[in-house]
């Protein structure tokens, strides 16, 4: 028995919205994400970035749970091998919880249905890219741009007071000019 989701075909506004969501999907980033997962987990995956393959590889959540455990052992306590819908969605939820624990911001995660019901695969790619940046902190190879590090500076009270007396160049200067003699448009004749 297949765990496929049977939904009515979208039409009208819903179909247009789904087309817009799908248009944001990047096959290149999806392929890069799958390559990264393959490298971190050691699993033999098809790393083609098309939506169909990306969905098929990740839909049951087992690879995602293995990825979380490869980044940090014990991140996902139990990986369900059953293909029943709620067990697969449990896997996806367990991965999302682990991703948040790794430091992936809430706005860069996805909803379970985004993957399970193939609603928004782009958000899954965004989450994996974000996790790829966080994985470096756990000694794993990363993907995407290097994450910025905090560079906090502490100034003395004296230095802060000295800065208040300086007029920055960004504020501009009028070099003593004033508005006398400037007319815009037609003048009023009395």
TrEMBL record:
Q: Which GO terms describe its biological process?
A: actin filament organization
Q: Where are the transmembrane segments?
A: none
The record, for Gene3D superfamilies, names:
Calponin-like domain
Q: Where is the Calponin-homology (CH) domain?
A: 27-136
**Which cellular component terms (GO) are annotated to the entry?**
actin cytoskeleton
Annotated Gene Ontology MF terms?
A: actin filament binding
InterPro entries registered for this protein in UniProt: Calponin-like (IPR050606), Calponin_repeat (IPR000557), CH_dom (IPR001715), CH_dom_sf (IPR036872), SM22_calponin (IPR003096)
Q: Which family does it belong to?
A: Belongs to the calponin family.
Return the protein name.
Transgelin
């Amino acid at each position: 028995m297949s765990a496929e989701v049977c939904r009515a075909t979208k039409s009208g506004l819903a179909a247009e919205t789904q087309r817009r969501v799908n248009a944001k999907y990047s096959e290149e980033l999806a392929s890069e994400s799958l390559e990264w997962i393959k490298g971190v987990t050691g699993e033999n995956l098809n790393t083609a970035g098309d939506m169909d393959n990306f969905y098929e590889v990740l839909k049951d959540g087992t690879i995602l749970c293995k990825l979380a455990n490869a980044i940090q052992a014990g991140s996902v306590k139990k990986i369900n091998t059953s293909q029943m819908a709620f067990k697969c969605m449990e896997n996806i939820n367990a991965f999302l919880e682990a991703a948040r624990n790794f430091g992936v911001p809430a706005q860069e995660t996805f909803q379970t249905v985004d993957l399970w019901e193939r609603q928004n695969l782009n958000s899954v790619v965004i989450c994996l890219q974000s996790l790829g940046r966080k994985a470096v902190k756990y000694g794993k190879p990363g993907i995407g741009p290097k994450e910025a590090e905090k560079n906090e500076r502490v100034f003395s009270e004296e230095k802060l007071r000295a800065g208040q007396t300086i007029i920055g160049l960004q504020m501009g200067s009028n070099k003593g000019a004033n508005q006398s003699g400037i007319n815009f448009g037609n003048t009023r004749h009395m």
